[in-house]
Fold each of these.
Amino acid sequence: MKSKLSTFLFAFVFGYIVNSSSGQQNIGCRTGWIENPTTGIGLNNVTLNNYFSNEMVLQRGVQNIIWGYGTSKTHFEYSCITMDERKIEGQLTPIQISENVWQVKTPIQDEWTLCNFKFSENTKLENVVYGDVWLCSGQSNMEQNMENIFNSSNEIKNAEEYYNYTVRFATVANKFLNSPQPNLNQEMKLSWSMTTTPNAIKEMSAVCFLYGRTIYNKIKVPQGMVNSDWGGTRIEAWSSPDALKSCNISSNSKGNQNANSVLWNGMINPILRVSVRGFLWYQGEANMDYNRDLYSCTFPAMIRDWRSKFSQVSEGTNKNAPFGFVQLSTWRWNSDYNGFPVIRWHQTADVGYVPNAKMLNVFMSSPLDTYDPKSGYPGGIHPRDKQIVAERLAFAGLNTAYGLKEYPTNGPYPNKFTLNLPIVTFEFDKDLEYLIDAEISGFYFCSESIDDCDKGTTVEKWKEVTKEKVKQDGNKTIIVDLSDFDTMSGGSIAYIWRETPVKDLYKLPIYSSDLFRMPTPPFKFYIEDNVKKACPLTRQINVIVTCDDGTTPQILPATMIKCSASSTYDTRYTCSKALQGPYQRGDNGRAWATKGQGVGAWIHLEFNDPIVVKMVRLLQRYYSHENARRIRFEYVDDNSYEEAFLSNFGSFEWNDISLKRVTPIKSLRIKVMEMVPYGGPTYVGFKGIQIIGCPNL
């Protein structure tokens, strides 16, 4: 018996083979269940959810939930061996969460731990490895498989030879549902597979697999890539009703895969119990003609919502899990349609780069040099060069998701500009190379504001700056001469603002000068003649506060002159204290809370000097009856206003609202227009307010 126990229910044989040419570590194993007669498993009438199959990957470092159907009569068993050959065995006690649904939580394991699970005589999971699990989603460019990319035969052969045990993958079958079914046993188009599983790698998403391959090459942790996508689908279909409501999206009840929330219901919600390391997203083409200008809300809202719901249900997914996406690539040569450029901008929440204040822990790949002239599929709107797309995404992921700061999040990006019209000087955040043999200068000028320049459906307002008018000056500086244009003040300048900017790989104008060769992503800025000096594109402007309680904390260079009536519960909650943030849990003496007033409450800011306000940051109190949902920003100077919806309620996270106004102001009133519904009276409670912008220099 002792000898039999020492085999620990099953045996693993590890083999380490290092290929001298690739440097890849190939780890092989074989498993076989060895019954232990001293332990008993009852005759459980159970089956597993279809997501679970042999060769799968579970998320390392956290608890994982395994669930299925039927009724469990007794415990389940598991047996594992770690990378250092320690053997672990134990029992799992299932919880019956409904009449026909059970679940268990697995013990936390490190990477490379291999496990077998036994749920009944006929229901087992074998050769399960612990690593990092990524959920890949979107439309057809995420769906595009390994058989439809450049050099596909060699890529598939390479995958089979060197990545069989290290990058495993699965694909959820297409399904739309009009209402959520949390316990749905969703179908799998491709059960968990390894690269040597016959024909499996050919059908796997190329971006998803190649991202996992690049990550594995760098960190040597098994990667589990789960693909859940559907070609031609809109972001609204992948978003929950909660996410859509936060962006005030109107209902869409079409009975197909593009109706609101139907893919969330059918392809995401059923696997919320899965613990994941992060998410990958490649979508946006289907929104260039549908809710295009709401994408800057719907995309960040979907990210927040996925993170929140996966973290709440799976318990092993971090509430700020890394989220990577691919900017829209290219399509038609010489197209003047502006759908792609505008969606690319909205993909970054109208900032131009990620991560940013509105999209924390988000990273991206910018593939605007992957034009594919081939007609039909693949080709055109589905470029075959998915290798460079996945590589750039993985570089950014290594930085953002894994903290390896030697890898870049993006190419060079301007962090300030100087105007001495007609000369615009951009200073970038890293060393760059401006290609003198690039196909275009890369820069475009429009005589209107950045929003007005993109009204309509074409880029005709964006006029190209000729190549001889742009030059590099030093390692981080680009100089653009706008003397060819009659009116410059009050206009805008953009970079690579075309559906297909260039024809060839690595022929965009600006790349980083390091070995990563990351391209500068698209950007656009508004030009004002009265901004003569170098102005940081974003810098925090604190405030001097004068409130009706007589408190005047000195901070810098603005004045809050008053709050709305009944502005405090008591002396702990004052206008001035709300601007002293950041607020910490339990710090109840620092807030502005109204007494008996929700909708209609306001704060008035009076700036000592004119300021271009780029962003207002609002932090709400934790209590459910004090959450504002819709805020109006009133420009007292000319009686105009704009509104925004808040999404972070009681979460100790800032709401970052980018303002569209580009002219300086001296007065700003922040007014509550709508509260989150609550069963009793609603009040306003802000824990922190910050103003970010640029002085009128």
Amino acid sequence: MATFVCRVQFLDDTDPFNSTNFPEPTRPPHYTFREDIPLINQIAGVHRLLRAPHKLDDCALQLSHNGTYLDLESSLSEQRDELEGFQEDIAGTRGKKHSVVLRTQLTVRVHACIEKLYNSNGRDLRRALFSLKQIFQDDKDLVHEFVMAEGLTCLIKVGAEADQNYQNYILRALGQIMLYVDGMNGVICHIETVQWLYALIGSKFRLVVKTALKLLLVFVEYSESNASLLIEAVTTVDTKRGCKQWSNAMEILDEKDGVDTELLVYGMTLINKTLSALPDQDSFYDMVDGLEDQRMEAVAKRFLGRRGTDLDLMEQLNIYEATLRHEDGDDESNPPTGLSGLKDRRRASFGDKRRGLERRRSRRASLGRSGNASPCSPSTQHSGFQPFKGQGGEDMSKRTGVQSPVTPANKSSLGGLLSSSYRQHQESLSAERERRRAEREERLQRIEREERNKHSRDYVDKMEEARMARDERYKHVERLAAEEFERDRVPRSRPDLSLTFNPVEAWAPTSSRSTTPLLPGVSG
């Protein structure tokens, strides 16, 4: 009969929002497991030995060295792989050994979390949402169970009716969920989450918009197929609102609520990442034409032609312009590898037989405005190395009658020139970006110091006013006490007592003999 002797502890997590990460007791007892008997038949002995506060039917066993939950329906001999490394001493802890931890099952904790979120409000709901991220961070296995139990639906329902502080807590928890593969797969299968994230970038609260844009960037970068899901979510949300597609992102780029460079960079990056992941022409040009219909070209010209524009924003706008020219076929040269978002021209959509073999082009190219980004655009400068390219080149050849040969040597020299020019441009951009970031950090620190000094001055002024008010109260109390003391010193006169005497009566000489009248019949 094989046995397995180990230390046992319990973790009081009966309330997921008020649990601890420290198993008890600190001096754990030892328990002898039978390796040939299912653990569900032995867990009652562990529960009784530890006197744990858990319900016996809700208990699970977890290994402390790797966080793995043991299958209660199986025996230890059937889970030998999970116990690998369990008996080894922990390095640097003087021979301290691992333990088997008794705690609440994952499904029970998940249902308790969801029930708490649905049934709480006010301060209790705020505490629960704030703790949610730490709960997922402490136990990664909880994420899978939360997603399977429709926890994402719960978060969206609570967030739709909550204020911006609660939405920030929900976004923090959602970001922790998306860090895990199971969590990200759950979000991919739950399109309502993507729709909610896109709807939030139209919020009037900067932190909510920023966090939602970050999560959408993580979602799009995770897999190229997620770009189509994002476009589907955007279409659904904007159709319900009666707006054009990507209207929330364009409102950010139009600086509707004031200048915020960070949001502009995130919004433009999201557009570029989505365009980069689209597989065919129709989806690409549908999105581009929708953006151009909302004055995307004017937005790009405004920022690229403005002095002092953030370099990260300029880079993203240049990527958009270069991608559009490359896809339209206006720039036949190989794009520089440093620009993420540029790749081979997309294939035509399946079943697209209109106009024979003619490729679809953007609305801007159809109107003859292609390549009008800005002189500041590095990609525009790159195209300047081929002045006789396209229709203009054909006309020039016809006028001169000379056909300029294109040799491999010319191609290689031109490629080297492009690479060198682009590399220098990138280095200067990087140096300028670092300088701008240092200036921004210094400006933020200065603003923080000014706010702190202002707060200190206001605090000192308030304290001085309070001291003066306190002194006035003391003086008033002292004045009242002095008046009361003066009144107590003077003897009070009674109104019914007269102190007026007749002087004659007061000073008449007194006789030594009694003046009592004699009784009749009594002689002296």
Amino acid sequence: MSEGTGNQADDFDVDLLEEDYKNQKDALLFCIEVSPPMLEIVEAPSADLNDKPIQTCALRIGLRAAYSVLQQRIIATPSDALGILLFGTQETTDQTYENCLILVGLDVPNVRGIRRIRDLLEDDNEFEKVCKPCETMPPISTMLFCANQQFVSLKGTGYRFRRLFLLTNTDLPPANSPKDRIVARTRANDLFELGIQIEPFFLCSPARSFDATKFYEDILYPRPTTTALDSDSIPLRINMQPISTTESLIFESNMKARQVPRHAIFSIPMEIVSNGKLVIGVKAYVLYKHLSPLKTVYVYIDETGKSKIARSKAEEIVKSEVVSSEHENLNRPVFGNSLDSRSQITRGFAFGGGVLPFTDDELLKLRNIGDLGIRIIGFKPLTRLPLWTTSRPSYFLYPTEEEYVGSIRTFAALHQVLLQDQKYAVAWCKLTQRAHPMLCNIVAVDEQIELQAGREEQTQAPGLFLLRVPFSDDIRDPPGIIQNYLSASTPTVEKASLAISTLKMNLGFQHIRYPNPVVQWHYKVLQSKALEEELDISKPKDNSLPKYNSIASHSLEEVSHWKKRILKDLHKQRRPGRSRNQSNLDI
């Protein structure tokens, strides 16, 4: 028995790496505080921005965000382990960890656990029963110890990324004595030593501010780690900025953005000076990845009544043999023969109407074109960087000192020089041992920080982008110039410019507000099927559709004038013998 082989297995594509990194399992535990401040009623925007604000509390906002992550991950990455821990409740799961309620144990989530969270959010009586705060808040060290045991007792192996999301709006817990701080700091350090990264989500409101310097900045200070997030022993920056409860949608999108850790696609050397005189280490990351609906699989019902994925097996039976000799044709099929072993099967290439066989060693030598790495071969001004050279999505490069000491300083110097001189680098790249070499452009980008809802948010990290460009053999000639087309007059162009200027977005294009409607509808159907919910068969919501009423209120007059100018140009340039429909088609 063997796996099927073919040309697709021989032709290695770098994009396979982008699929491999998604198969790495992640363990994520939500630790949400239950206290009177977390239950204070606040106003928050609804999911539909056009509706009125809703009355909610910080605890509901945190649970709803965690529930949204669970819904998404159970379908997108079903092998991940997820859990929810409430601390500060009257109910206790284990007396060892007082006032800590394990709402969903840290494990691969199932439908039963997700239903419990859903019922908790929809049933007010159940919410008040479960989320009842205790009289005295337990020390933070108790919650961290309980979370530690959740990760230690996690079933299965292969969880490379393990993280803890901490949600609270109490900047100074009641147990804040010097002894409590030392114990909490020790428990947090134990988590970091196990490779568990703590990421806080601090909440604030107009009536309650949050100052991380009072307590949490001393407990959750950045620590170097080499096991969790590919950080190469560099202290990780922990985001201590609070998020207002009036921005619940921003909070939920922020949590979704941080739910996936930084997965490096590959780690290779970058040669800045030829002959290996100056080499640094870099890692590549995918910042944007197209998300598509899941592929269907065949399932069957086993003896216990459970649905399982049907696995296919292939058995190769060779019914033809290639025979070549000096007196016979290059290929002569001989049917009915079977080979004794796979060693008799060789690979080859179709050439000149025949087949050229190659041994495995010859194929290896044929593919081995240069060593692994990125080799800079020159620099060019940014003005000579054409947009059409980008043939595939880019990689984001960041330095690593796992193999080469001093890579960070050298990388920073190269990054600064490219920005100051307004240049980009041209490089020869071979990203993996089996990948084909390619030409790439290396473009430096500076850090971008924008003020969003009164908080400074990093919208672009500083670093280098690796843009894959085509070879001369890959470039095709553009289509010929279109003949006999109608041209717009200068007044028409001015009317068009005026109409377009009235349609500009005040805050610019915000991609976070435009989810993929096809993927969202696909997930909605799967979730309703798994949770046995009634499916709303109404048309999926598509935020990318134009807001016709808003467009009409802002630019109806300008668009009408523009249309009249087009009709005038059409009437003047219409040639004899052409119908109105043909002329409209030219436009």
Amino acid sequence: MAYTFMFESNACLVFNFLPYIGNDEKEIDCKGNCMTQYIGLPKFCYSISTDYPFYRQHVNRLDDCYTYGTLCKTNYKVQIEVSDVKERLETMENKYQERLEAMENTHENELKEIESRIEQRLKAELTEQTEIMKKTVCQQNLKTEKDPVIRRGEPQNLSVKEKRDYVKKMMAHAWNGYVKYAWGSDALKPVSLNGTDLTKSLGTNIVDAMDTLYIMGMDGEFQRGKEWISSNLNFSSKDVNIIVFETNIRYVGGLLTLYAFTGDKVFKEKSIHIVDILLNAFDTNTGIPYPQVSTKTRKSTKYTWRESSNLAEFGTLHMEFEYLSDITGNPVYKQKVEHVRNFIVQKDRPGIMYPSFINPDTGIWTGFKKSLGNHCDSYYEYLLKEWIRSGKSDIQAKELFDVSAKEIDDYLIKTKNGLTYVAMIEDSKIIHKMEHLACFVGGMFGLAAKNEEDKTLKKRWMHLAESITETCHASYNKTVTQLGPEAFWFTESLQAEGKDVNDKVYILRPETVESYFIMWRLTNNQKYRDWGWEFVNALEANCRVEGGYSGVKDVYQADGGTKDDFQRTSFLAATLKYLYLLFSDDNLISLDQWVFNTEAHPLPIKGVNKFYRPYES
């Protein structure tokens, strides 16, 4: 184990050495600098890389006498090995032992006392020298690891900077509309110019957007949001059924990111408050959570329209719950999600991959759709990302991802007319349809390739990442608005195009631009930034309205047809964040230090990110 210190000019370190026991009759009243005051030796500057000089004055009593050597250093780095200190102390001990043996016949009783005191001092000295190396030696000169970049990150290219600045203005327009017309509500209706609530004004938009405001340096807006969270975010004050999945990815994920960014305990405390309510959902026969919980009664319930919980919802809790345990020291959060995963692993699967639904009371699979889209998507995403977030210590997650990735590649990945897409299975039949939700898969395989050691898998996964991202871009290019449809088909007459009315909507989703961002970071291929800028222009032309940004109901019509009058909170949390990072320097929220939850809230990677902020008792 080594410790490295950086010394400026005139930086110094004083080492306190053990007393040397001799038989000289001269007594010395040791009060400090024996070496210079009594021995008459001049002060020296020694390089730490050379042997320590041990000047001695023989004495016949133990008076806490120490010699002091001043070690001076000028403008260079030194490295001290603990083993070096231990070796030198052992050498000293050997010399003391030799001297003691020579005195054995005449000082037998005294030697026992001396030997004991020497042993104690040697242990103390080893501890002290080790601590010296661990701690700061002239604090201002200690070399430390650079902080992760979580703000600024300005690109050097002027044209790229202008695009990034434009995205920031889009964020300001979306946020200001919410503040003006819907403050405290869950989301904004930007055409009607009022708010809309799913949770009786628990401010989803505020919490979801906060880390984007922070990254963009919108300090006034961030401070206003923080004050609202501190004073008003209280789930116990409302009587509403909250959805476990949505609450976790938006509120808990957002608050945990804010805690990692700032270290402000209010964000951690609010996370605990919310997750402690969510824990009630796990009180089932199987431990698989019900999908919703009452904030007033704490009673968890199923959806009225289905008896089962879906794979994506109960499988998208691991990252946040595990991290919350790490920063609070409370293992219960971690235990709940680990039980869910273990239960699923031990269950028999009906064929390849996992079905979309399971009954939380009986543990029986009830849905037989298998896809990377709705009801399934983020379960697979979190296997990979939790492995990364854990510092690659969650081996079970990686093993499950590897098995799933192979099955996805073998059974769902299809290519038609040069376009590679992710199909789905319904009732054992292949459906050649890909949902916009599944466009995250390009980025997922890109992250998998980045972190994979097997060269064959790495190459295959990167190929899939590039190909699937290309297909999602093609689905945008085939529309009048240059916005992607909610779902697109591959048939004899359709190539990455929507077919039904519900396929043709665009609701401000982030999955495609998420893959653009990740693929840019991995390859620095200019086309991903070009595609991102095309997307910005399409949003401005078709979705921008007076109050903010609205989804559209038909991407194949000019201007997107009718507006849906809904600015989803994910537009601020994810879509605009990914666009901003796409046009930022690559060190801003580095993929080597952060991993994004499914709502684009970056969580620190364990063991490599200084902002992990683990609990210390």
